[in-house]
Amino acid sequence: MEVNNQHIIDPKTIQDVKAFEWIAKLLAKGFLHGKHDAVRLGAGMEFQQYRPYVSGDDIRSIDWKMFAKTDKYYIKQTSIQTEHQYLFIIDNSLSMKYSENGWSKLWYAKLMTAAMMCVLSNQGDHFAWQSGKQLMTMGSGKRHWQHCLETLFRLDFEEGNDFVQPMKQSSTTFIWMSDFYHPILEVQEYIKKLKHPQTELIMFHILGHAEKFLDFGSNMTFVDLETKQRIDVNANATRKEYEKNLSAHLAKIKNLSFKSGAIYEEVSLNGNITETLRRFFHHYQYTAL
Q1: Where is the DUF58 domain positioned along the sequence (predicted)?
Q2: What mean pLDDT comes out for the span 70-97?
Q3: d(CA 104, CA 106)
Q4: Given the DSSP bridges, would you call strands 103-104 and 99-100 parallel, antiparallel or unpaired?
């Protein structure tokens, strides 16, 4: 069942945690195919993919044939079966108030987190979520999922939201949901804290269609959600420069993720929620998609 947030789910109907739970279950339904082991990338027997070498990797795992072909260092990753845990990091800074078609970036992130955790609870995996000032403890099962939903539903925007200090854990997948309107150096340093040889990182970059292409009409006034600064803009005159600057910023984020060995996914507020879920579970092979 394809569930599209723009045409089927009206965020105004999510008035309480029961409605939040019901919609998360609806989204997760197509990915609930029975409990089975999570597939992790490591020193197993079956080849999965290459990723760039990063500081801290065992140099013995470098694929020298790839080096001979590309003159770059790559690690050959293979699959193993293991217990694993998942930590969702949700950006709830004021810029996440931006909305299109009734959907704010924060609501999108919250609903995606709820649906992903629903599937993880069915798998028996351990999971939790964090924001700037909130930290859920790791747990598993339906009761823990429902407890996570109760606090997640109440999560609101925070002024001056700082990066979450990640828990010091190995065998963890971090799922970072943000619009990444942070200075590049700050993003780079935070990626280093999250991604190392014993962890994995997925970065979901949430953008609106109109936001990406400055599709708001000719003359408008923008209000910076962080600083409250008001700026009058003629979109037709500034669109090319805006798209150029935004594309450069996106390219830098993608490059940082690639160099670290993280996974980068750009998702649209106007897109199909099920497709974003499919991307997540494709990476970790929970279902045969």
Answers
A1: 49-249
A2: 79
A3: 5
A4: antiparallel
- Give CA–CA dist 46/62, Å, rounded: 16
- The DSSP bridge pattern shows strands 172-178 and 99-100 to be unpaired
Each residue of 14-41: pLDDT tens digit?
Answer: 889 999 999 999 999 878 765 545 555 5
**Bridge partners (DSSP) listed for residue 47:** 78
Question: Rounded CA gap, 134 and 151, in Å?
Answer: 9
Q: Which fold has domain 11-34+84-284?
A: Rossmann fold (3.40.50)
The alpha carbons of the chain give a radius of gyration, in whole angstroms, of 20
Per-residue H/E/C for 69-108:
HHCCCEEEEEEEECCCEEEEEECCEHHHHCEECCEEHHHH
Three-state SS sequence of 191-233: HHHHCCCCEEEEEEEEECHHHHHCCCCCEEEEECCCCCCEEEE
* pLDDT tens-digit readout, 87-111: 999 999 999 999 998 889 999 999 9
Question: Does the predicted model carry a pTM greater than 0.90?
Answer: no
